[in-house]
Amino acid sequence: MTQLPEKKEEEVLARASQGDREAFGELYEQYVTRIFNYVYYRTGNVHDAEDLTARVFHRALHHIHNYTDRGLPFSAWLYRIAHNLIANWHRDRSRHQEIPLDDASHLHYKGEPPESALVLTQEREALLRLIRHLPSERQHLLILKFVEHMSNAEIGAIMGRSEGAVKSLYHRTLLALRDELEGSGLQGFE
Amino acid sequence: MGAAKRFVDASKATYASVENRLAGVFKPVPPRQEFVRGLGRQIKIHPPAIARRLTDTHLILIMLASMFSLVALIAVGVRAVLTFFGGRRRTPRQA
Predict the structure, then answer these.
(1) Nearest CA in chain A to B48
(2) What's the 3-state SS for A14-50?
(3) Hey, what CATH topology would domain A1-97 get?
(4) Could you say which of A31, A151, B9, B32 is the most buried, measured as most Cβ atoms within 10 Å of its Cβ?
(5) Cβ proximity of A52 and A134 under 8 Å
(6) Do B14 and A178 count as a contact with CB atoms less than 8 A apart?
(7) Domain residue extents for chain B
(8) CB atoms within 10 A of CB A178
(9) How far is Cα of residue A43 from the mean position of the Cα atoms in its chain?
């Protein structure tokens, strides 16, 4: 899905906030994969990611008429809804969800021999567990940077922070992860 | 100067190592197409829109059916209570 030009998005957003469902549908098609990815990496399984992604868009549709442009990208508003729903989801769960092997196995390491693919999957899961124990804004930052490949400026616009603040948070996150990795004894698999 | 440069290089190497690991972990995950299409249909036909499509006749029929079901349920409940606690009536042969 190609990115809508800013002007075009404003126009679509204006129509959507006046109750035009087709316009909201365009926004949905534009952002569904991004929101799904965000929720997927925050929850750790496809089933809950689909459920929460659906709830994000239903809630957005329900409240789109209240949407006011505060100079932030529309995606920031969607991510905020997703963040709140994920926080409720975590609160409702007594134990943390892990990525089941059948969920994770289709993602990576095609062409690897089965044994090394299994090791890589296990290491990947272990690292994801570490990441999911980070504060939510750090997880958000990592997802935007590594899944969406956004620049610090773009991430700052979504997170409501300056570019410098994002850069600083990113470095602190990397350092924290490095310490966690050293403590956990995880081996490299880059 | 040399020590400072070595420190900076070591920091960069550390960051690069962690970044490589993260790049190996985070990959875009495409959602299932059935899910995207199904949710898209729901989004474009929101429940209130579905509700508005119900005509008055449909609404009256649904309400009548609901009331009939409720009355039937109450009747069955009353009958069950009478059967269990109301005592047995004498049949004509017993009389």
Answers:
(1) A62
(2) HHHHCCCHHHHHHHHHHHHHHHHHHHHHHHCCHHHHH
(3) Rna Polymerase Sigma Factor; Chain: A (1.10.1740)
(4) A31
(5) no
(6) yes
(7) 55-85
(8) 15
(9) 10
Domain coordinates in residue numbering, chain A: 1-97, 99-190
Instruction: Return per-residue pLDDT of chain A as tens, 190 residues.
Output: 556 666 688 888 989 988 888 899 999 999 999 999 999 999 888 999 999 999 999 999 999 988 887 778 899 999 999 999 999 998 888 555 555 544 544 454 445 556 555 666 777 888 888 898 899 899 999 999 999 889 999 999 888 899 999 999 999 999 898 888 887 766 554 4
CA distance B36 to chain A (A): 7
Neighbours of B44 (CB within 10 A): 14
Pick the CATH number of A99-190 from 3.30.565.10, 2.60.40.10, 1.20.120.1810, 1.10.10.10: 1.10.10.10
Q: Are B26 and A147 in contact (CB under 8 A)?
A: yes
CA A144 to chain centre: 6
